[in-house]
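can u do me a favor
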């Protein structure tokens, strides 16, 4: 598979995975929206239940008298139009309550995981990311993340953070698509937002050096309970981004220095 800088080809080649990842990134907002929606539905059910009770009283009155006033008849017709909805919502109430409970539990787990990550000594808050150079694998990865989350992306600087292979693949794809420099920059910004928008910070779960010029770092995207694997290569004493693997993906990476091939697999669990 092509190694495009910062997962451009990876995202294009794994559309179904990206859809799942995108959904997961927005889970916090979805949880809040669904919780609010469930609460609103519960209020609607209560209101319709009250209307149903009023309808029952009017029906009882209809049974005991032979006619209704015009106002009572109009109210009866209005309530009858709502009674079907009231019954449907009443029937759905247990399911809504169960969904609401599950969403609250999922949000509590997410918050617990985030708090644990934030307490770690190697936690990197997203809003505090900054250029950290390319002298070490950790520093290079911080620089990559900073570039991905920066609102002032510089295309030429961004390209300098990638290996020649990844940059060549990216430029080849851009040429095939006929993208202008502005469009190239916009695409990188969009990918950066897509990868990091659901996270509040990052921390290293595992780091390996299979060879002196190859680093594999499993990075937790905290706030969305996702681990992604970054592969970096050392070129002329600088560590450069080479590839990105999503959960469960396996790739074979070759050391430029020794020529040895290593199998790299991104973990499936947080």
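np, heres the sequence
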């Amino acid at each position: 598979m092509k190694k495009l800088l910062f997962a451009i080809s990876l995202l294009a080649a794994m559309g179904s995975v990206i859809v799942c990842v995108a959904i997961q990134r927005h889970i916090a907002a979805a949880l809040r929206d669904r919780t609010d929606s469930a609460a609103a539905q519960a209020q609607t059910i209560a209101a319709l239940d009250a209307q149903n009770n009023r309808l029952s009283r009017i029906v009882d009155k209809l049974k005991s008298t032979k006619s209704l006033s015009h106002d009572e008849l109009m109210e009866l017709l209005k309530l009858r139009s709502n009674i079907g909805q009231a019954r449907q919502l009443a029937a759905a109430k247990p399911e809504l309550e169960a969904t609401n409970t599950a969403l609250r539990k999922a949000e509590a787990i997410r918050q617990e995981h985030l708090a644990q990550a934030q307490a770690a000594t190697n936690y990197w808050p997203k809003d505090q990311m900054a250029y950290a150079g390319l002298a070490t694998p950790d520093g290079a990865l911080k620089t990559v993340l900073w570039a991905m989350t920066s609102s002032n992306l510089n295309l030429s600087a961004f390209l300098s953070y990638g290996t020649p292979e990844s940059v060549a693949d990216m430029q080849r794809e851009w040429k095939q698509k006929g993208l202008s420099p502005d469009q190239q920059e916009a695409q990188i910004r969009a990918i950066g937002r897509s990868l990091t928008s659901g996270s509040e910070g990052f921390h290293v779960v595992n780091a390996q050096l299979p060879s002196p010029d190859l680093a594999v770092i499993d990075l937790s995207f905290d706030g969305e309970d996702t681990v992604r694997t970054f592969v970096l290569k050392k070129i002329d004493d600088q560590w450069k981004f080479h590839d990105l693997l999503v959960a469960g993906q396996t790739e074979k990476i070759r050391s430029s220095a020794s020529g040895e091939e290593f199998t790299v697999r991104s973990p499936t669990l947080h």
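Residues 70-119 form the longest helix (50 residues). hope that helps!!
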